[in-house]
Amino acid sequence: MGVTAALAAAAQHADCISLFTLLVALALAALFVWRASSWHRLRHVPGPCSASLSSFWMLRKALSGRFHEHLRDVSDEYGPLVRIGPNVLLSTDPEVLRMMSAARSPYTKGVFYETGRIIPGEDTVVSLRDEGEHRALRAKMGTAFGGKENEGFGFGAGIDRQLLAFMNLIDSRYISTATQYRPVQFFRKTSFFALDVIGDISFGDAFGFLQQDQDLYRYNEIHDESLPVMNIMSTMPWLAHILYRWPFNLLLPKEGDQVGFGRLMGFAKSLIDKRLQPGAKPQKDMTQAFINNGMSRSELIQQVFVQIIAGSVSSATAMCMTLLCLITTPTAYAALRREVDDALKNGKISSPIAEYEAKRLPYLQAVIREGLRMYPPVTGLGSKQVPKGGDFLNGFFIPEGTQVATNFFGLMRSQSVWGKDADVFRPERWLESDDEQLKVMNGVVDLAFGHGKYSCLGKPIAMMELNKIFVELLRRYDFTIVNPQSPIKAWSAVFWVANDFWLRITKRA
Ligand code: HEM
């Protein structure tokens, strides 16, 4: 190569480099301007500095499995409204949380909810962000969640059937004696119970988790593995759009899979098609009420997923975490057992206990509320979106489009509401408080189920399970924690993922 040619090639190379450098510099400048303007929008709201610049603060905390505690800690440090992301605020103010979800509130569901789709492109009642469509779909669900088509016009019969199946399972396989040791991972069995309840009341038959005492189709295992992914997406909802596209969508569960959510999709379609067949015999369950209220085939299929996913893990968490609190608080355990024993002696409770009987047991009611408070079963951000024109929250102007997340755990452990012993399981607080305090406490603990136009539709089911389960357990059994140093492994990922809740169960003398 001649000298001239070499110089020309070098000059061309230098041109390419400078063009490349210029492009990189422009991209960085654009990124800087974008970041600076997104930081500027909410610069007046307090919060950790790194959280105001990128979503990595949230991601890092979410990946720790202790997101709920980090959120509680920032609200303790910065106040009731904290900036936890470039466009995300965290509210620990019950008034604000109720206002955003009130029936006529102009706030809408935030982008967080888009991660609530089970099948890409198909909305469920959870993921629907369009207010009109959400309202219309909820309206078609009211009768079903009132148990109006179920046998006896309620959920009692189905829950009682599965409660007895649960007790039979414990009696036949998990009673330890002086000579036999049969430890049981109680969280898994409680999930089986919650799933079979949903099967029974929603689809006319239990799935058979309890009867077979098996994690059918590895449902629970795969569910637990998928929650961390959902947790990551909840901090960066745009990731959902990438995940739903090729090639990542190849990794998603597919109809025809033999296990997990794929298996669930196959189940949902065949169940709904069978129920919609001309001449199909009407059943006495929630699906019948959904059909009678005019839900479309695709709405019905999505609702099968919602029933199973929303209806199982949160109830199982409430039951297990409350039982854990009871076993580790001997005074509370003894007080509840005394109340149950007295009611039994005086013929005040049936077998299984009826919900109206349970509601007459004040200590039981205090235990249920205190359990929900200690470990609110839903810990996800549940962000709502600030409406057009913006709004004033806690004295700050918040521009439209801002996402305002719910600090479920922080709210339930807030010393300003619950006092210095907020971290202690103490059902007595519900019995000692005056009417005014009780009103505040009830208003806050009820937020564990959301509020108003977005409130949990399954609350009556969950409350009936809670009203029955502790009485049925305590009247029959004694419990010992197998590993007192680490009674349960539980971490939060939108819901709780709990494992290794090993108990030794003995029959009461
Ligand atoms: C202790 C148990 C439960 C707790 C603490 C709980 C809590 C919640 C929360 C916090 C929400 C979201 C509220 C919001 O978006 O602001 C929700 C929504 C929902 N829950 Fe529950 N839940 C429980 C059990 C159940 C059960 C058993 C079902 C029955 C299938 C159920 C069905 C639903 C449905 C359908 C929604 C969506 C409502 C909507 O977006 O309009 N939940 N729940």
Automatic annotation (TrEMBL):
GO molecular function per UniProt: heme binding; iron ion binding; monooxygenase activity; oxidoreductase activity, acting on paired donors, with incorporation or reduction of molecular oxygen
Domain of life, source organism: Eukaryota
PANTHER family per UniProt: CYTOCHROME P450, P450, PUTATIVE (EUROFUNG)-RELATED
Protein's organism: Neoarthrinium moseri
Residues annotated to bind heme: C456
Protein's recorded name: Cytochrome P450
Classification via InterPro entries: Cyt_P450, Cyt_P450_E_grp-I, Cyt_P450_sf, Cytochrome_P450_monoxygenase
Cofactor(s) for this UniProt protein: heme
